[in-house]
Every structure is written in structure tokens, then in C-alpha cells.
Design goal:
Layout lengths: L44 H27 L2 E2 L2 H5 L5 E2 L3 H7 L2 H32 L4 H16 L2 H11 L6 H6 L10 H30 L2 H9 L4 H12 L1 H16 L3 H6 L12 H11 L3 H28 L5
Helix pairs in contact: 1-14, 3-14, 4-8, 4-11, 5-8, 6-8, 8-11, 9-10, 11-14, 13-14
Length: about 325
């Protein structure tokens, strides 16, 4: 037989065509696969690495929140703290008393409006300066970054005290430059809130500026050049090009700003001397402090803290849900 190769033992073997070279021979043993098999415990490996952080967060966050919620359902005043009276379960009585207090709703409204103004102002200043950083040279950029980081690193008590000195009615340079004499910025309700807002924006915008600037630097230069060649203005480039591409970053800084500005305490307490005249500049955090420590109503202060926590969770979840409905990847 011509064209058919023979083995040394005389048996005739069938030649395997080149196109069928990858098929497994009949009756032959399965060739062991060289592909790596997935580790059976790979699904739980991330949790092993996250376990130390989760333990720390559990001790620093979960347990205090649990205690906060527990005290809010109890009758817990100075009498119970000192052991003079037994601690009793009050249920939702503290919340009913809190929601029935007209001052609580006034402080809640002031807190929401003040926090919203702080968030919008902080985002506007931070994003504007982030765009400015991309337009200036290296030396001015470095100077602006160092100045912003210095403001960010300044403790809230120190920053509030410095701003009070700047706007002092007797010795402050701001009144002298504006020529308004001995005007007291902390006497009126709205002027005091405006002064605190300026200080909050001053110590908060660096985070937004640095984060947004990093996002802008990650945007391909060709995209911005194409928009500029099409005749788009700087505002149009930001609104139509940069803002949509930076939306995940803007989500992060917005949520962070909402959380920080909604629970402002130090600036209000220091600059308005504990909430202003007759409590006209109270926000929820200072209001909770007064109820818990000034009035020794620890259960009411805890109830205010729980309400603040629920409000922040609701705002964050609603905001993220709206973005998910728009198809944004976070």
C-alpha cells in the first residue's frame, strides 16, 4: 500500500488531517489541561483582606451608632447617669417630644438651607479653581495648591478664630477696608450665617479642587482640543465635556460635602458663641449638643443624632438612585 506509513510493529495508523489536529483521539486518555484552576476560596479572599478594616469600622462606627439608637429610646438624663433614678424604656416618646417641638423644625430648616448653600458654594469655588489650575503655569499652580492645602489642614477651631479676628468690629481689617466702622457680623442672623459659610467654604474647597483637578488631568487632551477647535467657550467645555466625564468624581465630592456641611458644629459654635443670640444661628449638631450636655437630656440629644443619620442616609441613597436611573457608572 503506497502512501500509507507503517509503524515499526507493522500496524497501520491513520494519518490525522491537519485541520483535525486539535481533536481528541478516540479511546485515548484525556490530556491534562494546562489552564490554571481557580482557587476554591477565591470568592472569600477579598473579605479576608477587608476583615481588619471591618473590625476597626465595627468598633468605631457600628457600636457607637447602636448605643446612640439605644439611648434615644430610653429616659436618660443626669439623674440616670448619676444613678439617682433607674433607666426606663421610653420607646418613641423622645421622638414624639422632638417632633412636637417647633424649635426643632426651625433648626432643621435652617440646617438644610445652610448646608445646601455651603455645598453649592464649595463645589462652585472648588471646580472653578480646579479649571484655573489647568490654565496657569507651574509656579502659580504650586502656590495655589500650597495655599489651598494649608487652608484644608488648618483645624476648624483655629480657622474659625482667625476669621473672627478678620471680621472683628473693633480691630478687624475687613471693616476698615470696607469702611463700615464697628459693624458686628455675628450680631445679625443672616450676616452670621454668611460669615460661617465663608469659613466653611474656605476650609472645604481644597478637597473639591484637588479631586476635580486630578480628574481633569485624566481627560484626554484631544477631547478638549476638539471642543476648543469647534468654537466652544470655557463654560461650554465645562458644561458639555468635562462635567459629564467627571460626573463620578463630582458625585463623590458632592456626597462628601453634604455629609460635612450638614453636620457642621465647630464653626457655628465658635463663631456665633454657641448658636447666636437667642439661638438664631443654631444648626442640628449644635442643637443636639445643647440638648445633651447643656440641658442634660441625653436621650433627646441621641434622638437628634439618629434623625441626622437617617437624613444623611436618605439624601445619599436618593442621589445615588437618581444617578443609577440615568445610567451612570459609579
Amino acid at each position: 500500500m503506497t502512501g500509507v506509513p507503517k509503524s515499526s510493529g507493522g500496524a497501520v495508523r491513520e494519518r490525522v488531517p491537519a485541520s483535525r489536529g486539535l481533536s481528541r483521539p478516540r479511546g485515548g486518555s484525556r490530556r491534562p489541561s494546562t489552564a490554571p484552576r481557580p482557587f476554591r476560596g477565591a470568592a472569600g479572599t477579598p473579605w479576608i483582606y477587608l476583615a481588619p478594616a471591618l473590625v476597626v469600622l465595627g468598633g468605631l462606627l457600628v457600636y457607637p451608632v447602636y448605643q446612640l439608637g439605644l439611648i434615644s429610646f430610653l429616659e436618660y438624663t443626669q439623674a440616670q447617669v448619676s444613678g439617682g433614678e433607674p433607666t426606663t424604656f421610653k420607646g418613641f416618646g423622645n421622638y414624639a417630644e422632638l417632633f412636637g417641638d417647633g424649635e426643632f423644625w426651625r433648626v432643621l430648616l435652617a440646617t438644610v438651607v445652610f448646608a445646601a448653600a455651603c455645598v453649592v458654594s464649595t463645589l462652585a469655588v472648588g471646580c472653578a479653581l480646579a479649571v484655573l489650575l489647568t490654565r496657569v503655569r507651574a509656579v502659580p499652580r504650586l502656590a495655589l495648591m500650597l495655599a489651598a492645602l494649608g487652608a484644608w489642614a488648618t483645624p476648624a477651631v483655629t480657622g474659625s478664630t482667625v476669621w473672627l479676628l478678620l471680621f472683628d468690629p473693633d480691630f478687624g481689617p475687613v471693616n476698615r477696608m470696607l469702611g463700615i466702622g464697628d459693624h458686628s457680623w455675628t450680631y445679625g442672623r443672616y450676616s452670621a450665617f454668611a460669615l460661617v459659610l465663608l469659613e466653611v467654604v474656605w476650609c472645604s474647597f481644597p478637597f473639591v479642587m484637588v479631586t476635580v483637578y486630578a480628574g481633569i488631568r485624566a481627560v484626554p487632551a484631544e477631547v478638549l482640543e476638539a471642543a476648543a477647535l469647534d468654537g466652544a467657550s470655557q463654560w461650554r467645555i465645562w458644561r458639555s465635556v468635562l462635567a459629564p466625564m467627571l460626573r463620578p468624581i463630582l458625585v463623590v465630592v458632592t456626597i462628601q460635602s453634604v455629609i460635612w456641611d450638614f453636620k457642621v458644629f465647630t464653626q457655628i459654635y465658635v463663631m456665633t458663641n454657641g448658636g447666636g443670640i437667642a439661638g438664631q444661628n443654631l444648626v442640628l449638631n449644635v442643637y443636639a449638643y445643647q440638648k445633651a450636655f447643656a440641658s442634660s437630656q441625653y436621650s433627646l440629644g441621641s434622638a437628634i443624632g439618629v434623625v441626622m443619620l437617617l437624613i444623611l442616609l436618605a439624601v445619599t441613597l436618593v442621589y445615588l438612585r437618581l444617578l443609577r436611573r440615568q445610567g451612570e457608572e459609579l
